[in-house]
Amino acid sequence: MVSLTLRDFRTYERAEVALGPGLTVVSGRNGAGKTNLLEGLYFGCVGRSCRTSNEREVVRFGAPLTRVEVHTRDAHGDPHVLAVGFEPGAGKKMRVDGVAVPRLVDAPARPLVGLFLPDRLELVKGAPALRRAHLDQVVAALWPSRAGTRGEYARALAQRNALLGRIRAGAATRGSLPAWDAELARHGVSLMADRGRAVDNLAGRFVDRAADLGLDSAVALRYRPRSHATDAEALAAELAERVDSDLERGFTGHGPHRDELVLERDGRELRAYGSQGQQRLALLALLLAEREAVGEARGALPLMLLDDVMSELDAGRRRRLVELLRAGGQSVITTTDLTHVPTAEDADVVRLAVANGSVLQGALGTVPAPPASASQPDDAAAAGPNEPGWRAGGQAAGERAGSGRA
C-alpha cells in the first residue's frame, strides 16, 4: 500500500491521497493537476522529477519550498516513510524513516516505480543512449548489487577519454593507454554480461505482453552489443586496435557505451519502421515485462504510473491493459474520461477526482472546470527528461558530451 502527502508541490498547496491496493484511477479535465499528482508520487519515491531537470518548477508559485511524503509498506508488511524536501537554492533533503539519506534510490524500503508518460515514446524511437540508460536501470532494479558496474565503467571511460585528450595535446604518451584499456575492458565485460542477462530475462515476457496488447506480427527484444568480446583481454585488444581512430576523434569510439537495445517487429526496428501506435504498444509491453521481471526478482511488483495512456488506445486494448494491471500490484492511471478505463467503477477500484488543486477521494461523475487563472499548467508539454521506468539513479555509462554517443 502507498499513500502520498504533498505540500506546495506544483498546483497543490496541500493534498493527501491514499492509493488502492490494486488499481487507482485519477480523473479530471486537462490542466486540472493529474500529471502533477503522478509526478509527486514519482518525486516522493525516487527523489527527483520525472518531467523536468529544473526542479524549481515543482515548487508551487509563491511558496518557498515543497515537501513530499510517501507512506509505504515493505514485502514484510513493515511501514516506512520516505520524505523529500526541496527549497530552491538550498538543495534537497531526503529521509527514510526519519534518517537522512543521500539518495532515495538506494533505500531498500522504497517502492520501485514504472512510469508511462506520453513523451516517453522517445525511449522507443529516440537515440540509443536513452535505451542504454534505461537498460542499465533495469539491471539495477533486478540486481541491486550490480548497480555500481555502470558507474565504474563510466569513470574508467572518462579517464581513458581524458588521457586521449592529453596524448593529442602532447602532454602524455601512448604508454599509459594499456592500463586504462585493461581497466575499461574489465568493467565493460561485466556491464555487457549484466545487460545481456537482463534482456534474456525480458525478451520472452516482452513478446507475451506485446501479444496481450494486440501488437500484431512477430516482435522481439534484442541486445546488440558493439563488441562481441567474451572476456576482458579480448575487449582490451579491441580497444588497442582502435587507438589511432580514437586519437583522431578524441574519444573512445568502441565499447559498451555504444551498445543498442533493439525493439523489432517483423525483423525491422520499431524505432525507424514502426507507426506511433505500434511504438506505444511496444513501450507498454516493455514496461509491463520489466514490471513482471522486477517483481519476480525483488518479491514485490513495482508501482505503475500511467499518464494519459488510454486516449490513444482502442477499446479492446484498453480492456487488455487494465486486465494486465489488475492481475497484481498497485497501478495509477490518469484520464480525462472515466469511461476510457474499463472496470473503473468496480468496487475495488479507487477513484480520485482532481480539480482546482484539490483531490477528491472516491469521486465519480463530472469534474468541475479549473478557474481560468489556474496558477500552473499540468498537462502542457514540459521540457523535461525522458525518465526511465525503473529509476536507479546516476548517469548512463559514457553518456556525456564529447563521449561519441550514438
- The share of residues in extended strands comes to 15-25%
User: How would you describe the shape?
Assistant: globular
Q: What is the tally of beta strands?
A: 15
Structural class, by secondary structure, is: alpha/beta
Q: What average pLDDT do the residues reach?
A: 89
| Neighbour order of strands in the largest sheet | 2-1-4-5-6-7
Helix percent reads: 25-40%
Q: What is the count of distinct domains?
A: 2
Distance between the termini: 40 Å
CATH superfamily of the largest domain: RecF/RecN/SMC, N-terminal domain
CATH class of the largest domain, anyone?
Mainly Alpha
Topology diagram in text:
Elements lengths: L1 E8 L2 E7 L4 E5 L6 H13 L19 E8 L5 E9 L3 E6 L2 E3 L11 E4 L5 H4 L2 H15 L5 H21 L8 H36 L6 E6 L7 H10 L1 H7 L10 E6 L2 E2 H4 L2 H23 L4 E4 L8 H11 L5 E5 L14 E6 L2 E4 L45
Parallel strand pairs: 3-13, 3-14, 8-12, 12-13
Antiparallel strand pairs: 1-2, 1-4, 4-5, 5-6, 6-7, 9-10, 10-11, 14-15
Description:
The two termini are 40 Å apart. The protein folds into 2 domains: 1-111 and 309-335 and 367-376, 3-Layer(aba) Sandwich (Rossmann fold), CATH 3.40.50; 126-308 and 379-406, RecF/RecN/SMC, N-terminal domain (Glutathione S-transferase Yfyf (Class Pi), Chain A, domain 2), CATH 1.20.1050. The chain has 406 residues and is α/β, with parallel strands linked by helices. The protein has 10 helices and 15 strands. α5 (177-212) packs across α6 and α5 (177-212) crosses α9 (276-298). It has a 6-stranded antiparallel sheet, covered by helices on one side. The protein has a 6-stranded mixed sheet with strand order 8-12-13-3-14-15, sandwiched between helices. It has a 3-stranded antiparallel sheet with strand order 9-10-11. β14 (350-355) and β15 (358-361) form a beta hairpin. Mean pLDDT is 89; it is low at 364-389 and 391-406.
